[in-house]
Design a protein that fits this description.
The chain is of the alpha+beta class. The chain is built from 17 helices and 21 strands.
């Protein structure tokens, strides 16, 4: 059957009618439909997943390399994060898309371990490819994999180390170790101590729900990485300002803050109403009314006692000068998320009208100032009473570098959040994978039948993580894996790859820790993806309808003149 492909006469069965010999093909599917089925289809899907894994194989671990991806607009992204790379690769193969999806789900759920989840899934498939080719039924493989995953997850839960919640010092140390482990494979690995403290501080400021949105990350070009700072409060870039802004004071202590969603500028009211006037006095009255409406609004803001006025909508030049004369600071066109963050930090609420400016809708903070950061000016609100939010100001040389730093910090923040919610940790660096691999191998020898082979294959696949760590660091993988297998057989539970000394080490002692949930999630997601790809035995691609494609090419405007 060659590739198992049938074009055109997709499903053609020969049939005979009584008496006459007719051999007309039965055509069920449209001309040009591409169907491929059977074992060759399964093998080709497995091969496609191998290609995806090859693309991000080298980014794993502290010695991993980075990828530079240029999109169709020419924007370059340098990244080490598996999910980011897979998102930017435009994958069209339907089976390989599954791997991209599990990397995304790992990123959303746990934040880190996106490369390892993809590698694991691809390795699972690679180990069972020979069994598929020999004609073993996929359902048997799927059943064995489910059993193996269940056993593996139970094993992780059994050996994970729980950290006591009541000991704050110890707990903080644990979070820092987890953040440092997450950062060690990133570009900013050299500053991981500096950043892991910052990340833990940031997450500790948040309330119990740990909302990610409440940690703002602002990037300012210039300066060194070490100049990055954490502000327990809100900071945002100075907004567009009108004349008169220079006269406003730039520093207040204990100000009241008005948060508005109101335009404070001369609205040309005639935009949305038609007024017919037949003499100049009437016209003047209308113009005066506009001014008095504006001044009325401004006065109410001033009388409310607010010293800092922030609005999502523009604050015009008249308003700016009015506030400057009365020693108020104002900023218009503040991005909505910054306004919300200010509200969370300083209290108060965002007002959509000016008529109810009572004291309880105003926010408060200890110190407000506008300061220069690099080439930008930033507004800082610090000492907030309700501070359940913080802002990380990142400094750095190039834009790509800062983008990658932001992604790395995002991973670390997610990891610390996970560690707070699930307080059990395991050792990273391939240690946990080796331990589960040994456990499953021992288990597989106790059961008869084909399942024994398949659970053995699952166990072998888990070794891809330590092997890849060795390969990326340029070590002799076979040698180190042999040492690890021996050590785990003797009961060295937490032994993993030591990338610094080209040897094996007790990674729990070396503080290479990660939350157990990361590994559990990675294993279940990888195994599910492998089972999903295994359970597909036929792909039917409908041909693009010719009418649609010509219409689509017309509508994709390149500024061509339309023929009328």
């Amino acid at each position: 059957r060659g590739e198992g492909r049938r074009r055109g006469r997709a499903v053609a069965g020969r049939f005979r009618t009584a008496g006459t010999m007719m051999s007309a093909p039965v055509i069920l599917l449209k001309e040009g439909t591409d169907t491929s089925q059977g074992t060759p289809q399964l093998v080709s899907n497995i091969n496609a997943c191998q290609v995806i894994a090859e693309a991000i194989r080298t980014t794993l671990g502290p010695r991993g390399m980075d990828k530079l991806i240029v999109d169709d607009r020419g924007k370059a992204t340098i990244s080490n994060d598996g999910a980011t790379i897979l998102k930017l690769l435009d994958v069209v193969h339907p089976a390989a898309k599954t791997l991209v999806d599990i990397a995304k789900s790992q990123d959303a759920e746990v934040g880190d371990g996106t490369t390892s989840v993809t590698l694991l899934a691809a390795e699972f498939l690679r180990q069972i490819k020979p069994y598929v080719e020999e004609g073993l039924h996929p359902q048997i493989i799927i059943r064995s994999f489910r059993t193996a995953t269940q056993l593996a997850v139970e094993k992780i839960k059994a050996i994970a180390v729980t950290v006591k919640k009541d000991d704050k010092e110890l707990q903080r140390e644990l979070f820092e170790k987890c953040a440092a482990t997450a950062l060690s494979s990133k570009l900013i690995a050299l500053q991981k101590d500096f950043f892991s403290k910052m990340v833990v501080d940031a997450v500790m400021i948040l309330d119990d729900l740990l909302p990610l949105k409440m940690i703002g990350i602002k990037k300012v070009q210039g300066g060194g990485l070490e100049e990055s700072q954490l502000i327990a409060g809100v900071a945002f870039k100075k907004t567009f300002s009108y004349a008169g802004f220079e006269m406003q004071p730039k520093k207040y202590t204990m100000p009241k803050i008005a948060l508005l969603n109101v335009e404070l500028e001369l609205k040309a009211e005639k935009d949305n109403a038609e007024i017919r006037v037949d003499n100049v006095e009437d016209y003047q009255a209308i113009v005066d009314a506009e001014w008095s409406i504006l001044y009325d609004k401004l006065e109410k803001v001033y009388l409310s006692g607010a010293k800092v006025v922030l609005s999502k909508l523009p604050i015009g030049d008249v308003a700016t000068q009015y506030f400057a004369d009365r020693d108020l600071f104002c900023a218009g066109r503040v991005p909505e998320e910054d306004l919300k963050r200010t509200m969370m930090a300083c209290g108060g609420s965002i007002q959509t009208s000016i008529n109810a400016m009572t004291d309880d809708v105003l926010g408060r903070c200890e110190q407000f100032e506008e300061a220069q950061v690099g080439s930008e000016r930033y507004n800082f609100f610090t000492g907030c009473p309700k501070a359940k939010t913080c802002t990380i100001l990142l400094r750095g040389g190039s834009e790509q570098f800062m983008d990658e730093t932001e992604r790395s910090l995002h991973d670390a923040i997610m990891i610390v959040r996970r560690a707070i919610k699930n307080d059990s940790v395991v050792a990273g660096g391939g240690a946990i994978e080796m331990e589960i691999s040994k456990y499953l191998r021992d288990y597989s020898r106790t059961i008869p039948g084909k399942v024994q082979l398949l659970i053995g294959a699952y166990a072998k696949a888990l070794e891809v993580i330590p092997r890849q760590l060795c390969d990326n660091a340029g070590f002799d993988a076979t040698n180190i894996l042999n040492k690890l297998r021996a050590k785990h057989a003797q009961g060295g539970v937490w032994y993993g790859v030591d990338v610094n000394n080209e040897d094996i080490a007790d990674n729990f002692e070396a503080c290479v820790w990660e939350p157990a949930i990361v590994r559990i999630n990675a294993l279940t997601a990888a195994s599910e993806a492998a089972c999903l790809i295994l359970s597909v035995d036929e792909t039917i691609r409908n041909p693009r309808s010719t009418v649609d494609s010509s219409a689509a090419s017309k509508s994709r405007g390149r500024g061509m003149a339309m023929g009328h």
